[in-house]
Amino acid sequence: MRHYVRLQVSSLVTLCLCLVLTSALLTSLLTMRFSAPLERMARGMLLPIKGEVTSSGSRHDARVESLYVEPHFSGEFRKIMTSQPRTAGQEGNRSVLIRHPKKNDLDPQPVKPRKRFPHAGNVTDEDQILSRAPKCILMGFAKCGTSALLEFLDLHPKIISLDWEPDYFCDRMYQKYDLKWYVKRMPPSLPDQITIEKSPCYIVEHDAHHRIHAFNSSLKVLVLVRDPVTRLMSEHAHYASCQRYWGKTTQSFENRFYNNFTGQFKTEMILKVGDYTPHFQHLLQVFPRDQILIVDGDKLITNPLSQLSRIETFLGLQHEISREDLYFDREKGFYCMHLRQTGERRCMGKSKGRQHEQVNDQFKKKLANFLKPYKEKFFELVGDKFNWM
Ligand SMILES: Nc1ncnc2c1ncn2[C@@H]1O[C@H](COP(=O)(O)OS(=O)(=O)O)[C@@H](OP(=O)(O)O)[C@H]1O
C-alpha cells in the first residue's frame, strides 16, 4: 500500500514538473519572438511599427505609430499599452505609445461659435479665428502656481492660454484621443498668436515627454518650480480641502508626511513630485536645454513681472505685460490682474491662495533638511540656485 502511494506521489510530481517546464518553454519562445529583435534593434530609439495594434483597456482603439523603448529596456516586451499611469521610477521593461502627426493632424480647426475670443476687437478676418496647436506647454510642477502663471500670460496680446488642464499627453487621455481631438480643444486664436496649455501631469509622467516631442520637436517648454516645502504645504492644503468637501476627517501635515513611530519621513509621498531632479533629468533627455525655461514659482508670487518678462523673452515676444496689468491685492494676499480691455480687476479663484495649516518652524526645518540633498542635486543639474528653505 505504502509503495502504491509513493508511486502516485512521484507521478504527480513528475506531471507538475512537466507542466512547469512546458510553460517556461512556451514563455521563453514568446519572449524571444518579441524582445530579441526589439532589444537588438533599438535601445532609446523610436521604432516604426506597421499595422494596427489595439488596446483593450481604452474606449477607442488606438493606432500605434511607433514604440519607444527605454534605453535600459530588457526582458520581454509585455504590453503595447497599459491603462496604468506610469510615473518616475517605473521605467524600463516596457514600451510607450507615441502618436506622430500625419497629414493634416495639426492643422488649425474651426472654432465652435459659442467659444469666447478675447481679442475680438482687433480681428478683421473672422476666418482666421481658429483652434491652433500649442507652441508652448507649461508642464508643471503641480501646486507651484501654474494656474496663476497661465492667467498672467494671457494678459499678453500674442498669447492665448487654455483655461483648463487637458492632460492630453498623459496615459489617461492619450490612449483615448488622437492629435486632431487635442487641437480641436484649443482656444480660438489668430495666426500670429501663441497658444499655451498647462497640465502638471506632463512633468511627472515621463512618457508624456516623448509624446510631446513627437507632437512638436521644436515646442517651447515651461517648467515651474517652487520651494519643495511650501509646495508640499500647498499640496496638503489641497488634500485637506478635498477631504473636507467629502465630509472626511483630515490628517495633520505632520502626521501625513512623517511617521512618528519610526521617526522617519514618508519618503515616497514627499519625493513623488517634490524631488524635481528625476523629472527634469528625463525631460533633458528628450528636449534640448534651450527649448526649456525654468520659472521660479516663489518669485512668481512676490514679483510676478520678473518671471513674465523672462517668458516673453524666451518666447521671442515683445515685453507687453507691464506694472499696470498687475497689482498686489491685500485681501487676497497675492498679485491679481487689472484687465486693460474692460478695466476689471481679477484675482485667482478661491482654490488658489488657500490658507495653509500652521506648521511649527522646527518641523519645517526638519523637512527642509530632509529635502536638502535633493534640492542640491537639482541646483547642480540646472546650474542655478533658488532661494529655498
Ligand atoms: N497670484 C496668485 N494668486 C493665487 N495663487 C497663486 C498666485 N501666484 C502663485 N500662486 C500659488 O499657486 C498655487 C496653486 O498652484 P497651481 O495653480 O499650480 O495648482 S494646481 O497644481 O493647478 O492645482 C497656490 O497654492 P496655495 O497657496 O496652496 O493655494 C498659490 O500659492
Q: Keywords, please?
A:
Sulfotransferase_dom, 5-stranded parallel β-sheet, 39% helix, 13 helices, 2 domains, Rossmann fold, binds 3'-phosphate-adenosine-5'-phosphate sulfate, transferase, alpha/beta, P-loop_NTPase, 389 residues, 3-stranded antiparallel β-sheet, globular, NST/OST
Describe this structure in words.
3'-phosphoadenylyl sulfate binds at residues 226, 234, 335, 352-356. InterPro entries: NST/OST, P-loop_NTPase, Sulfotransferase_dom. Keywords: Disulfide bond, Glycoprotein, Transferase. This protein is α/β, with parallel strands linked by helices and 389 residues long. The chain has two domains: 36-98, no CATH class; 109-113 and 125-382, P-loop containing nucleotide triphosphate hydrolases (Rossmann fold). Helix content is 39%, strand content 14%. The protein is built from 13 helices and 16 strands. Helix 6 (206-215) packs parallel to helix 10 (277-286). The longest helix is centred in the first third of the chain and has 40 residues, at 2-41. The protein is globular and about 100 Å long. The N and C termini lie far apart (78 Å). The model is unreliable at 27-65 and 69-90 (pLDDT under 50).
What Rg do the Cα atoms give? 26 Å
| CA-CA gap between termini | 78 Å
The run of helices and strands is HEEEEEEHEHHEEHHEHHEEHHEHHEEEH
Total number of helical segments? Answer: 13
Taking the sheet with the most strands, its summary is: 5 strands, parallel
Query: What name is given to the CATH topology of the largest domain?
Result: Rossmann fold
Q: How many strand segments?
A: 16
Strand order of the largest sheet: 7-9-6-10-13
